[in-house]
Amino acid sequence: MLRHLSRPVATVLIWQLVATAAAALGAGLLAGQHGAISAAAGGLVSMVAGLVAAFVAARGNAKSAGGVLLAALRAEGVKIALSVILLWLVFATYQDVVAIAFIASFLATMLIFAMAFFVRET
Predict the structure, then answer these.
(1) Which CA distances in Å does 31 have to 36, 43, 61, 74?
(2) Are 45 and 90 in contact (CB under 8 A)?
(3) Spatial distance between the Cα atoms of 81 and 61, rounded to a whole number of angstroms
(4) Cβ contacts of residue 58 below 8 Å, gap of 6+?
(5) Are 116 and 12 in contact (CB under 8 A)?
(6) How far is CA 96 from CA 22, 88, 112, in A?
(7) What's the farthest any 2 CA atoms get from each other in the chain?
(8) Which pLDDT tens digit goes with each residue over 69-96?
(9) Neighbours of 81 (CB within 10 A)
(10) Which residues in the chain land under pLDDT 50?
(11) Residue 71 in contact with residue 62, Cβ under 8 Å?
């Protein structure tokens, strides 16, 4: 399933994975085990939401500029909704979350996903 992703999305997912690992390592050194888990969870929330949004966008069968725009907006809406749900789920279920590590990792990986626009398809 993942091998059908476009090159920009696959490249950005790898960047997100590396950033999440680095954030988890750094948070682990600074805040211990719960910091590492929190940073990993923040990165994974962003990665899952971005991956689902990419699949939603790819599923669209747009034949016009308006259709492409609608598919992109639908994918972005799915990404935002899923991000909010997953963020709430982590805060609601993980009592020892280190909020700064969780949010920092989430924001960093969300920004990295936005860079998919700059990755060439070739």
Answers:
(1) 7, 17, 46, 38
(2) yes
(3) 22
(4) 4, 5, 6
(5) yes
(6) 20, 14, 26
(7) 51
(8) 888 899 999 999 999 999 999 999 999 9
(9) 13
(10) none
(11) yes
